[in-house]
Task: inverse folding
């Protein structure tokens, strides 16, 4: 049985008004998952609600226990987890579904990341909605940042000290190897202690500038009795003692993070101690409580408060993104980074050529991402791709079973975030031309399609008189497809929004897929502009064993063209501009049929 990618672990205690929203937000995530809920002895309708969900969704698993606290419930959920990654979600919060988790986890895989740390949104009754800013300056510039978890920990001081636990994804294998769980003897600060034990072991962490979680602060009905307050203060003291013991074992007591935690917690304990005395608790009793060993003198308190204030002063304006009187949809968030160009490269058994291809893309002087899609290669192509991905943060590798060229391109297309996309065959490469200038001209001309010139080992095209020519999609289709039959998509740069708007992707499971794709590209909007240039940007390698030239593939290509005709007829029947494109479609059917018959005839001979 295959394991889910993510295990979402939810302790639930009296969260009946909120648990449905929490579960719905996770169920909406388009990723392989399991949801493990532990009902921690709820006395409201929480148990009934989660059991109803479990009967409807086989990805939800429910466990019940007597009330033992959030740490006990999380530990029980963790013991049943099967996912590659785990996320701890509170039952009154929600997961935010506007980030491509597949993309994040793919990046984490290629960079061998153990922990993914995202942003979270905070909402409360009397405070404006806020989003916690990234801890690192690089992430604040909308960049995904990689570093060791121990180095990251040193940045987690002052306002950056507090996390929402649901904004973190952790490899389950790491938790298992470290024998980590939540301290059940703590009723406060169990999350910071867990994360310190995790991060101080020097794992690889990735901080991302995307909001993953919505932390909803609720006003509880906690008692104001002195007994309850004494219990809570002693719990903070127990946390501090445990933290120092662990830091001493790891020879980490002098670290910036630990020293800040000691400073901040002792300030809090001293303030709580003074409030307790002001409420009438006797000094003699207070000085016999476990927390009394951590109380600061008046002079120590003044010095500690100044030290903490100095740290907070340097972080002013870097803690939250927020505005007053806004709704959840109006929060000022860091923008996801969208490069100018996405290069999508399907890969299958091209080890001798792959490095040359990737190097040519790296050299392109523009803001870019390179998406390498390994389609189940049996040579060392995947090893080559992974080596590049480890060295260059803008390279992403997807590895899948062999499903064919179209499926590989579609996987890359789904992951792409660039304003423009170019599909590159992995045995070809780009020449050094000013692509940024070409994109600038395309944007200025409002042309969603750019046609580049290319060359092969034996052919150099004749240069036209003009360097750049603007035409319509139908003119281009007539000249390139109907007159010359040049369906290759690799010589085109395409605006990603245009593909999304017209729902254009590759027909999977056939050969000659470029003919189908190019027809949709040119005829979905006949008035779309095409910018054509005579700049030779692409080198097409003609190989005897390539799909287009291999004799045994010709019959398959012929069958693919026949299937293409049928698929495009169905597409045509759904279009509202049939009269405009009918002459082009009729001529295309004739061309496809003639070429298919020729291919199949060659195979039979």
Result:
């Amino acid at each position: 049985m295959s394991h889910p990618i993510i295990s979402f672990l939810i302790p639930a205690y009296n969260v009946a008004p909120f648990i449905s929203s929490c579960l719905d937000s996770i169920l909406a995530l388009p990723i392989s998952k399991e949801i493990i809920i532990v009902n921690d002895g709820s006395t409201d309708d929480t148990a009934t609600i989660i059991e109803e969900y479990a009967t409807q969704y086989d990805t939800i698993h429910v466990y019940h226990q007597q009330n033992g606290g959030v740490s006990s419930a999380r530990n029980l959920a963790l013991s049943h987890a099967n996912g590659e990654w785990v996320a701890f979600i509170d039952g009154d919060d929600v997961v935010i579904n506007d980030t491509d988790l597949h993309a994040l986890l793919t990046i984490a895989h290629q960079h061998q990341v153990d922990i993914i740390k995202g942003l979270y949104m905070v909402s409360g009754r009397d405070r404006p909605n806020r989003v916690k800013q990234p801890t690192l300056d690089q992430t604040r510039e909308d960049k995904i940042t990689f570093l060791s978890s121990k180095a990251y920990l040193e940045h987690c001081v002052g306002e950056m000290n507090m996390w929402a636990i649901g904004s973190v994804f952790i490899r389950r294998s790491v938790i298992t190897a470290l024998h980590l769980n939540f301290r059940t003897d703590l009723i406060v600060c169990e999350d910071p202690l867990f994360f310190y034990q995790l991060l101080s072991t020097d794992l690889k962490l990735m901080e991302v500038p995307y909001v993953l979680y919505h932390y909803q602060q609720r006003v509880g009905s906690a008692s104001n009795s002195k007994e309850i307050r004494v219990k809570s203060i002693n719990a903070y003291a127990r946390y501090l003692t445990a933290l120092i013991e662990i830091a001493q074992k790891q020879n980490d007591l002098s670290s910036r993070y630990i020293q800040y935690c000691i400073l901040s917690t002792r300030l809090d304990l001293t303030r709580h101690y003074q409030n307790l005395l002001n409420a009438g608790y006797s000094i003699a009793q207070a000085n016999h409580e476990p927390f009394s060993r951590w109380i600061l003198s008046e002079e120590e308190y003044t010095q500690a408060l100044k030290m903490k204030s100095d740290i907070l002063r340097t972080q002013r304006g870097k803690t939250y993104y927020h505005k007053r009187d806004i709704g959840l949809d109006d929060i000022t968030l860091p923008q996801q980074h969208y490069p100018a160009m996405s290069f999508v490269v399907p890969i299958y058994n091209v080890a001798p050529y792959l490095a040359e291809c990737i190097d040519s893309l790296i050299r392109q002087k523009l803001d870019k991402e390179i998406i390498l899609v390994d389609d189940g290669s049996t040579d060392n192509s995947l090893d080559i791709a992974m080596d590049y991905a480890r060295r260059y943060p803008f390279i992403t590798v997807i590895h899948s079973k062999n499903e064919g060229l179209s499926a590989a391109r579609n996987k890359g297309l789904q992951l792409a975030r660039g304003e423009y996309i170019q599909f590159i065959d992995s045995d070809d490469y780009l020449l050094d031309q000013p692509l940024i200038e070409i994109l600038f001209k395309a944007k200025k001309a409002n042309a969603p399609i750019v046609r580049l010139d290319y060359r092969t080992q034996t052919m150099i095209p004749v240069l036209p008189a003009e360097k750049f020519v603007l035409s319509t999609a139908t003119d281009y289709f007539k000249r390139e497809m109907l007159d010359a039959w040049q369906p290759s998509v690799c010589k085109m740069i395409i605006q990603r929004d245009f593909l999304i708007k017209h729902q254009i992707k590759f027909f999977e499971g056939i050969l000659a897929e470029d003919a189908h794709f190019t027809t949709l590209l040119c005829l979905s909007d006949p008035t779309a502009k095409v910018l054509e240039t005579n700049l030779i940007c692409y080198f097409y390698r003609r190989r005897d064993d390539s799909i287009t030239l291999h004799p045994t593939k010709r019959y398959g290509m012929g069958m693919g063209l026949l299937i293409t005709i049928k698929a495009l007829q169905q597409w045509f029947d759904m279009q509202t501009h049939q009269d405009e494109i009918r002459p082009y479609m009729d001529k295309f059917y004739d061309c496809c049929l003639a070429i298919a018959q020729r291919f199949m005839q060659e195979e039979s001979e």
